[in-house]
Amino acid sequence: MGSLSNKHLVLGVTGGIAAYKSADLARRLRELGAEIRVVMTRAATEFITPLTMQAVSANPVRLHMLDAEAESGMSHIELARWADAVIVAPASANFIAKMAHGRADDLLSTLCLATEAVVALAPAMNQQMWENPATQDNLARVKQNGVRVFGPAQGAQACGETGPGRMLEPTEIAARAAELFSTGALDGRHVLVTAGPTWEALDPVRGITNRSSGKMGYAVAEAALEAGASVVLVSGPTALADPEGVTTVHVRSAQEMLEAVHAQANNIDIFIAVAAVGDYRPETVAPQKIKKHSDTLTIKLVKNPDILASVAALSPAPFTVGFAAETENLEHHARKKLLDKRIDLIVANDVRVGSAGFDSDYNQLLLIDKNGVIELPRARKIRLARALIQRVAGKYHAKSTAQDSRYAHR
User: Where are the domains of the chain?
Assistant: First the structure.
């Protein structure tokens, strides 16, 4: 079964006897690493209590569209932005009909309309309701709109009948939820990502570093893994847990990062340099703690190796992506870096922007290559990472196809 590590899932529960399985589903999703927020319709509370769902999800259950404690008092907007996916299980015939026709008369139906995240329905109803042409028409419409449908299964139903309409078991729904994030865009490819800051020692106690948290790089590594790649993450010192399924190599200095990268560089297809590598390091490192003897202290710095440029200069070179964190003239400086280092793509962000960039779970990016600029507006870093990886995969495959075509005509 796949992983849901670090995924944000909204679990919607609608009215139906299968709602008793939703508690087990929440537990299964959490076992796979997901963080859960439960939204229940009024009818759902007739079958299972919000207190039960709160206990198994470890978070308060949301019931009302207008909530004084939610962002701007609107739970549907807060949850729509928070979610990586919305799983509605059970999804009643009534709820499917609302989804098909765009009705938004409660919190769950409204957030399904408001979110950009993938929405999946696990139908549960009497076999006659399932086979009714109106239900089938509604299902066809929601699928056409990009909604995923899990099941249903065939079997004995609470009404005493047997047939299609039984909700899939929680273990299968959880497995299918994990598959939602598997795009296959980089199946069989090897991706190397750098992340976090570097630490350049002054003495055994002090050093020169920067504010990078590593969150963007770790998100890119996870997104590449979701796309089917084999991923190595070379990380400077961070407070983050190693991403599940990713081979993580820990380093401290720029020189250590350079060595770790080049130990892998000949076996990779794509290199994504997200790390905020220090440009300079002290020329010498004091063997003991530097004491405060005078009002000033002069430290001579020397330039660190350019990891990104060194990988781009390999022959053959992997598809190479750099990051540029800037405080002014964002596009100008990023494009200069793209050309100077001869890389395939540069990802730029303005670190002056409030609540984005360093130390934040959010970011906003410009993707710049020789063909133009694509803007990725402010969003959670993992969502931006998925969008970035999809574009990197497309550009990588296009470049590989063009190179194969040139070789074929030689």
Answer: 8-179, 190-408
3-state secondary structure of 376: strand
Instruction: Write the CB contacts of 153 (distance below 8 Å, at least 6 apart in sequence).
Output: 164, 166, 167, 168, 169
Distances (CA, A) of 280 to 7, 156, 277, 309, 330: 36, 69, 9, 16, 22
What residues have CB less than 8 Å from 368, skipping those under 6 apart? 331, 334, 335, 338, 345, 346, 347, 348
Chosen CATH of 8-179 out of 1.10.287.70, 3.40.50.1950, 1.10.760.10, 3.20.20.370: 3.40.50.1950
Between 361 and 272, the more confident residue is 272
* CA gap 39, 41 in Å, rounded: 7
How much is the mean pLDDT over the chain?
Answer: 91
Q: 112 an active-site residue? A: no
- Identify the DSSP state of 210: -
CB 281 within 8 Å of CB 209: no
User: What pTM did the predictor assign?
Assistant: 0.86
Given the DSSP bridges, would you call strands 85-91 and 148-149 parallel, antiparallel or unpaired? unpaired
Give per-residue pLDDT as tens, 303-355: 999 999 999 999 999 999 999 988 888 899 999 999 999 999 999 998 876 55
Instruction: Please state the φ and ψ torsions of residue 388, each to the nearest 5 degrees.
Output: -65, -45
The CATH class given to the 190-408 domain equals alpha beta
pLDDT confidence bin for 162, thresholds 50/70/90: confident
Report the C-alpha gap between 3 and 18 in whole angstroms: 25
Contact 197, 209 (CB under 8 A): yes
- Per the listing, tokens 């250590």 go with 256
Catalytic residue among 159, 241, 263, 299: 159
Q: How far apart are CA 254 and CA 248, in angstroms?
A: 16
Question: What was the pLDDT predicted at 357?
Answer: 62
Residues 251-276, mean pLDDT to the nearest whole number: 96
